[in-house]
Write a structure and sequence with these properties.
single chain; alpha/beta; Rossmann fold; TIM Barrel; 2 domains; 6-stranded mixed β-sheet; 6-stranded parallel β-sheet; 16 helices; about 15% strand
């Protein structure tokens, strides 16, 4: 069958820009649609194409569909792109009418809030890790068999989704089928990380055993932590021969310490010779500094850490299971190693002037090279959303970009966004120096 996989365009809207003329808050990371490359890897006996509308203009959508003539269109999205997914599906169904392909929705938002896509222009929804289940769905459609697949739902706008729960295992990773990096090679030069450079993406693990209230990652594997085989991950790193930097896009590359140690030694022995950026928790750096040191020998040059807050009360509210003191200890160790730190921080809507100033001082004091401040956003399907649902003022998901306050702010909106933009300017100044 012919399968077209689509990465939707940037669809996020900006309250700071629309209402206050603040244009300095811009994303500086543009990564490849690895989830689609992974899905394509298991469609080895089908004709597959990836269309990245974050690079190509949206205007070529129907031109591409008409030229390729897919039997099935799969579209991924995070929350702020959910309506873009729907727009694409609706356009395809409207333009092709009775000759329209089957449309499948997947990705983070489908995994967290599948009912959002239970609409007429979408035929199926794939939740969670879909490498195996999407292929099973395609095979069932091709053979015209009834579709009864855990984690996959047939849409029916007249009723709630009938979605069979599933338990994820290593088998869902289809470890022996590598991502189809070749399908995005024409876009390769556009995939960059600000302050880091051109990067290729590798996934070595899925899910997370922690339960931070704001995070959508656990929904991808229903709380499990699944790792690819070391051999497969190293092979994927080597396949990306046109880039010297590998971004491990796991929620936590070091979620299993014995495995992480073994993995690092294998990278060293295999002579991959790549620079590596990976996510790690602050408490892992503090409790297992030896694994960070070993990974540095394997090529680790930067770590992404969700410090989130500089206030223990708020960290507890996020169920972060960490502390400000742990964050500081982690920063002290990383400074000794010389690793670059990309630090994620959450700006709560209840921030006042003192909170903004305190965060700015913390970033300066600890010399965090790439601070990334985001606004607390309750993503549908997360524990935070369930807790804050009654306080949400903005329900248009296009604003769920982590740079808009969708709940009431303590400060006036104009002052809140001005102070946030000032932090972002400092963020960009850090990038220019790095």
């Amino acid at each position: 069958m012919k399968v077209l996989l689509i990465n939707p365009p940037n669809h996020g809207r900006s309250i700071p820009e629309e209402e206050y003329g603040i244009t300095s808050i811009k994303a500086i990371f543009k990564g490849e649609p690895l989830a689609l490359e992974v899905i394509a890897g298991n469609l080895y006996d089908h004709d597959v194409m990836i269309l990245d509308l974050k690079v190509d203009p949206l205007s070529i959508l129907m031109e591409t569909v008409n030229r390729f003539q897919p039997d099935i269109v799969g579209i991924t999205s995070v929350t702020c792109e959910a309506d873009a997914l729907i727009d694409i599906a609706t356009t395809i169904k409207r333009e092709l009418s009775g000759d329209a392909p089957i449309v499948v929705a997947g990705g983070h938002h489908a995994s967290c809030d599948p009912d959002y896509f239970n609409i007429e222009s979408i035929d199926y929804i794939v939740c969670g890790v879909g490498k195996a289940s999407f292929r099973t769905l395609i095979n069932a459609i091709e053979k015209q068999c009834p579709v009864s697949i855990p984690g996959v739902a047939k849409t029916d706008p007249s009723t709630r989704l009938d979605l069979t729960p599933r338990k994820y295992t290593f088998e869902d990773l289809v470890d022996h089928r590598p991502p189809r990096y070749d399908l995005v090679e024409r876009y390769r030069d556009t995939y960059v990380m600000g302050g880091i450079g051109k990067a290729g993406f590798v996934v070595t693990a899925y899910g997370c055993v922690h339960a931070c209230s704001f995070c959508s990652i656990p929904a991808i594997t229903q709380g499990s932590y699944l790792t690819h085989s070391i051999a497969a991950s190293i092979a994927n790193m080597k396949t990306l021969d046109s880039v010297s930097l590998i971004r491990c896009v796991d929620a936590n590359t070091f979620g299993n310490i014995p495995f992480a140690n073994k993995f690092a030694r294998a990278i060293i022995e295999s002579k991959v010779n790549k620079k590596i950026v990976a996510d790690v928790r602050a408490d892992t750096v503090v409790n297992h500094p030896e694994v960070i040191d070993l990974w540095q020998q394997a090529g680790l040059v930067a770590v992404v850490i969700g410090f989130e807050e500089i206030d223990d009360r708020r960290l507890a509210f996020f169920n972060k299971k960490s502390s400000v003191q742990t964050n500081i200890k982690a920063l002290d160790h990383l400074k000794k190693t010389g690793l670059k730190v990309i630090g994620d921080f959450i700006i709560s809507p209840d921030y006042d002037r003192r909170d903004f100033k305190a965060l700015e001082t913390f970033i300066d004091t600890h010399d965090i090279e790439l601070p990334v401040p985001s606004i607390l956003t309750p993503i549908p399907g997360t524990p935070l959303y369930r807790h804050m649902k009654d306080k949400i003022e903005i329900t248009d998901l296009s604003y769920y970009t982590f740079s808009n306050a969708v709940t009431e702010t303590t400060l006036g909106k104009a002052e809140f966004y001005t102070l946030y933009a000032d932090l972002f300017k400092k963020f960009h100044s850090h990038i220019s120096k790095s």
